[in-house]
Amino acid sequence: MSKNFLVNIIIWMLLQILIEVNSQMVPFKPIGYFHHTATLIDNKLYILGGRLENETSAKDFFYLDVSVPFNTQELSWQDLSNINMVPPHDSATSVKGGANNNTLFLYGGHTTDQNMALVYTFDSQSIIWDIPKITGINMTKKRGLKGIIDYNGKFYLWSGEYDVNGTYVINDMLILDTLNLNCKKGSLVNAPIPRSEYSATLLPDNKIIYIGGANESCFFGTTLNIEIGVALTLSEIYIYDTANDSWNTKITSGKIPSNRAGFSAILGLDGQRVIIYGGYFSNPGYLDTTLYVLDLTNFNWYVPKISGKIPKPRVFHEANLIGKYMVISFGYGYDRTVESDILLLDISNNEEYVWTTSFDPSVPKNIIPSPSPTSSPIPSRSLPPSSQLSDNSSNNSNINIVGAIVGSLLSGIIFLIIGCFFLYKWNKNKQNKKIIYGNDNNYNNYRQEEKEIPTERDYEQAINNEQNIIQINDNEPTNDYHGQEIILTPDESMIIPANDHEQTYKNESTTNHEPIIPESFNNNYNGERFSLQAFKDEMLQAVKQENQNLRNEILQVVKENYNK
Ligand SMILES: *[C@@H]1O[C@H](CO)[C@@H](O)[C@H](O)[C@H]1NC(C)=O
Ligand SMILES: *[C@@H]1O[C@H](CO)[C@@H](O)[C@H](O)[C@H]1NC(C)=O
Ligand SMILES: *[C@@H]1O[C@H](CO)[C@@H](O)[C@H](O)[C@H]1NC(C)=O
Ligand SMILES: *[C@@H]1O[C@H](CO)[C@@H](O)[C@H](O)[C@H]1NC(C)=O
Ligand SMILES: *[C@@H]1O[C@H](CO)[C@@H](O)[C@H](O)[C@H]1NC(C)=O
Ligand SMILES: *[C@@H]1O[C@H](CO)[C@@H](O)[C@H](O)[C@H]1NC(C)=O
Ligand SMILES: *[C@@H]1O[C@H](CO)[C@@H](O)[C@H](O)[C@H]1NC(C)=O
């Protein structure tokens, strides 16, 4: 083989890598969804699925980093669609739960894919989707409901539309324990009539408040007014006590919002009020405002004082409490060329809520009220859930970060050199056909690696994998997998997971579903040859990770400076 030929190959590969990496670094552009899910896990807001304007379901999966300041006019979405194993769907519901309390649990939804499972999990640390095996009762398949996870990791799935014939609501309460993956049924004694598109909010005392909804599927036009009146009243609300599995109805007073469904609700930062936004309505008289607050101390509805640019009403959106904001994502009813997919309502001041476009991840110190002397029935939460947003690792981690950046740059260069070296060796050996996949374990390792498109993987990992793939004639391939990795997270400056990889590998072999094999792999892995394309992809993968790490680290530094 001529030297020139080899040099050409290397230059070509580097060029390809550069082009592909650059095209990857362009932030993901969502196409607009409603009936999607939005799940907050460790400062990332994950958006999954949803319905598209053309009445098909989306298969997109992406996230927004909320550990750093951002403006809603310039959202930097990160795409994870290529690792998504959930079929296109909409109207599902999701929570953060699991044994490590960092797993996305997706339940139900509407799909045309007959093979869609009832429950999926996404481990945000290992970045792996799975179909968990759930013991206990057979779960009904529902859609258009709002699942709530309590403080003990139990996922409550009340009512919703039965997703067989699609048009009738079903009354049942599924309780899925996300820690031991067991499902049972809850009580329906004194439960309200079944419904879909209601709102549900977990209160500080581990009770769930259910508000509004529709008694069947509704048709609505662009005005968001229901043309057939089936939205349910907000003059009463329903409280489910997770402690003793009992229901209770409360009559509300004050400026009761019109009947509505498809709206969103969050708990106020003081834990004493529920804020609702949007939805579709039966009474156009209430369209002057779409924001209402229910005072939980007396079940009185009121319209809060609002400033900022009032957005158009939305329906079938999602709302998450992130820091001091009610964060509205996507939905139906707004012009995407005019308004951002993300709306921010600053709720840190109960006297006046502010629609804003800039997100500040720091949580003000004064939002936790001192317990009121007139002992309210709702105890204040000790901490807002996102108080971890303001970490103070900045004191000791700046040096680490700078070191990490320099280190990654250096290791990136070294890696390229090593890559070129191995490529050279491989080319030399090619004619002898020494390099083939030796056994299934290696094949699985490779697949495992391809499944994860990690965003916070350390560079060492890439090198380890590279070695695994090169050392294919090793008889104990899994032993090479003990290389520990260092992951930078926004919360801790550095954590070293204990053989995280081996665990996921074991999990993989014990679950009985077929792991997904990304297309790129299928294309590249034709039979047993370790092709040039696969090698190039592997390098590309490592460089992408490298870029992502750098980006995260820089963001980290920005964030810390910001918090000072
Ligand atoms: C619906 O829209 C999406 C996104 O624009 C597109 O990918 C898909 O092909 C469309 N489906 C149909 C049936 O038009
Ligand atoms: C669940 O469904 C399967 C098949 O439909 C049935 O064989 C099994 O008995 C059911 N289990 C329970 C607990 O109802
Ligand atoms: C999981 O984290 C949330 C805060 O994000 C907390 O309220 C909840 O109690 C935790 N769940 C478990 C089972 O520890
Ligand atoms: C679905 O609808 C068909 C007829 O429309 C009915 O025969 C069938 O029982 C329904 N299935 C369920 C599970 O309700
Ligand atoms: C929903 O409510 C409307 C109005 O009360 C009623 O006409 C309709 O039959 C109800 N639908 C169901 C499925 O109960
Ligand atoms: C459940 O507990 C609440 C108090 O938290 C009590 O008011 C209610 O009566 C109890 N219900 C049942 C069915 O035990
Ligand atoms: C942050 O730093 C302050 C003082 O430097 C300390 O009291 C507090 O415990 C720290 N918080 C965390 C979460 O480490």
Automatic annotation (TrEMBL):
SUPFAM superfamilies (alphabetical): Galactose oxidase, central domain
Gene3D superfamilies in the record: Kelch-type beta propeller (2.120.10.80)
Amino acid composition bias (Low complexity), ranges on this chain: 377-393
Glycosyltransferase in keyword set: no
Pfam families membership: Kelch_KLHDC2_KLHL20_DRC7 (PF24681)
Signal sequence interval, chain numbering: 1-23
Top-rank taxon: Eukaryota
Key word Transmembrane present: yes
Keywords, ordered alphabetically: Coiled coil, Kelch repeat, Membrane, Repeat, Signal, Transmembrane, Transmembrane helix
Region listing for Disordered, in residue ranges: 370-393
Coiled coil: 533-560
Transmembrane segments: 401-424
Name of this chain's protein: Galactose oxidase
Organism name: Rhizophagus irregularis (strain DAOM 181602 / DAOM 197198 / MUCL 43194) (Arbuscular mycorrhizal fungus)
